[in-house]
Amino acid sequence: MDLSELKEIFDERLSTVDSIREQHSSDESWHIPENLPDAVIFPNNSEEVSLIIKFANDRGIPIIPFGAGTSLEGHVHAVNGGITINTMNMNKILNINKDDMNCVVQPGVTRNDLNEFLKDTGLFFPVDPGANATLGGMCATRASGTNTVRYGTIREQVMGLEVVMPNGKIIKTGTKARKSAAGYDLTHLMLGSEGTLGVITEITMKLHGRPEAISAAICPFSEIEEAVNSVIEAIQVGLPLSRIELLDEIQIMAINRHEKMELEEKPTLFVEIQGSALGVREQIEIFGEIAETNNVLKFDWSDQPETINKLWSARHRAYYAALALDPGKKGFTTDVCVPISRLTECILETKKDLEESEILAPLVGHVGDGNFHLIMLLDPDNNEEVVKAKKFNEKLIDRALEMGGTSTGEHGIGLGKKDCLIKEQGLSIEFMKKIKMAFDPKNIMNPGKIF
Amino acid sequence: MDLSELKEIFDERLSTVDSIREQHSSDESWHIPENLPDAVIFPNNSEEVSLIIKFANDRGIPIIPFGAGTSLEGHVHAVNGGITINTMNMNKILNINKDDMNCVVQPGVTRNDLNEFLKDTGLFFPVDPGANATLGGMCATRASGTNTVRYGTIREQVMGLEVVMPNGKIIKTGTKARKSAAGYDLTHLMLGSEGTLGVITEITMKLHGRPEAISAAICPFSEIEEAVNSVIEAIQVGLPLSRIELLDEIQIMAINRHEKMELEEKPTLFVEIQGSALGVREQIEIFGEIAETNNVLKFDWSDQPETINKLWSARHRAYYAALALDPGKKGFTTDVCVPISRLTECILETKKDLEESEILAPLVGHVGDGNFHLIMLLDPDNNEEVVKAKKFNEKLIDRALEMGGTSTGEHGIGLGKKDCLIKEQGLSIEFMKKIKMAFDPKNIMNPGKIF
User: For chain A, which domains are there?
Assistant: First the structure.
């Protein structure tokens, strides 16, 4: 691959060094890279991204957009080689508009960077996957997190995008108004398109006012069923939960070890309610009553920011805590999401399968959304383990689909769930592919992903 | 056009009678139909819709989907003749799932039908354009209404769709889970596509719990600026308004006449807050204080359902009240939406233009979203009046776009705003057209709209 024309422009910002290519060859998941990108380029702006894509499109060279590399379905793997575009230099917060409660950022800004920047503004950005992902990557994978039960996923935050399209043209989607009925919704088409339709180079997003008061509670139960039923009841009576996360006894044990905490090693809910001081106290008590009727073992709650922050940072590191249970192994993460009324059934059947399979897999989930993960620890080079995990996941996904759910609540399709997409979306995939073909006839944009 | 093959199947449900074709030739707006559909068919189910579309696609015959015919930009006009598909027989509520707070409906169900059906369930559907539109039509035009400031537009409600595509294939988009990251977001692509990409034949949507308490207030001001500033301040301090609507003195006068009410004929806010009994009282008082500092003339509030319902049903009939100011005239409705911080400036400059132009045009708006309408009364056959209204609207739209807003907050592009879309969306239209071409190469679906 002759990249000399690009090398002249990007100089040291274009690397073909092995170590750099290797660093960009995989994400945080169990997927083994079968290839390396031929080069990694670190553009500074949209025009440079456009220039790279035009170059690649003329020559049919694959382009792989790369944020923090924290995805979990092999989204950044250079399946057919090509050029990886790392957005780390495009990390500027371009505008914070306090009056309209929105912001404009470049794609390389991480969610923590943004919230750090917003610290003294009274505003915050709610979408919080476990990893400190880039906002570009979060848009590309339609990410969510623990706050989704209240604030929605990234889909509900993004008002508009700038995208460099597969032909190199730079387009703007959406507007800065809170709603618009003008033409096809390209913003939402791009969110979750996993880099297969273009490279996101600028994001306009909503921000939210920090709540006056926050309370959080830790609620261990003897039985996972009691925990899940508490969630369902709380959602159904309309309690304004801002977070409600389930961690099973194995995940709690992993967190105790990794975070040096001393939580009771039982199926546990981490719950948070935000609002006015009075409202929060009233509502956390109502949640306490619901948990009591489901035999909660204790109900520890706190309104101390330090205690609450410690809780959520432990939760955010759940994936790494799980991996640390068996050092050297990788995580094969399931991600089904089902209607909330079917959640208990889905979790119980799945736990039963898990016991039978003897797979070590902590369970952690955004149960307020009906979404939960099993982090199956395995050695990707051990075929038997991989086959077993795949089979387990397949059964879980069939169960979720039968319940009207989805194979992926928030991680996306990537390399790992292409078969599931066919099962789940059926005939509609024909029309997804028509869009892909129409936008990217040479299939240069992140080839091998989604389809 | 030889429709005998379809006539055999649909018999009396296929009409070529002049009066029926005329009834289906236009919507509620000023746009004059230049043509009639060749036939109107009333299918009973998705398979029949598919059959019609396959027939039409084979022969290159235009298809125009028709709900209640209440759109405002000529969306249902049979520009090139063809077959109008009226969904009135597809008016079944297929499922109400109380546990998951969602429903599945056919496209011919109207928003009032659905809420009537939900009356005793504790649930309701929030999206409420003025007209009693069908839910299929509301999806197709990405509708919103007075509740959007709290509940979002129809975009935030729809979880999945069944759509008959231009090649006759019936696809399902989305899932019944609260979120999904599986593949391209065809659901949002279809919402707002105005019948140009397919016919929506089934809708899965979120429902919401009825609030414990509701209070509403009527707040007249001497100056429109004081009213708008109250809105901006209330939004910026994060008051959980469920509705906040501005009506200028002319619109209030129109409502007084049409609804036999005795409101003070001043720029007025209709405000509503929902929540717990305690919370609502606290918050309506905070709003009262904000209004006081902006010199509100009086602050009448009520928590009586009857009073509140009367207020909102008057608001919903604002368009018809405006039309009644000058019987025989039609409404040319503007629909800009701007960032909330620019709203006062946008409204003041627009009112100034209006005074200079001497156009009779009540102003009414969902100001919490930054969206407002002028209903310009005109005779569509009077070219001078039409040119004047178009010129006025063009200037207003340029102003909104310059402020980062949109030409259409909720009515859509249709026939009337095709030029605006080009100004607003620029290069991205190329990619909208690629989708249109890829899905509907013969351009049979609602031709002449959007592009």
Answer: 4-86 (3.30.43.10), 93-209 (3.30.465.10), 213-321 (3.30.70.2190), 326-425 (3.30.70.2740)
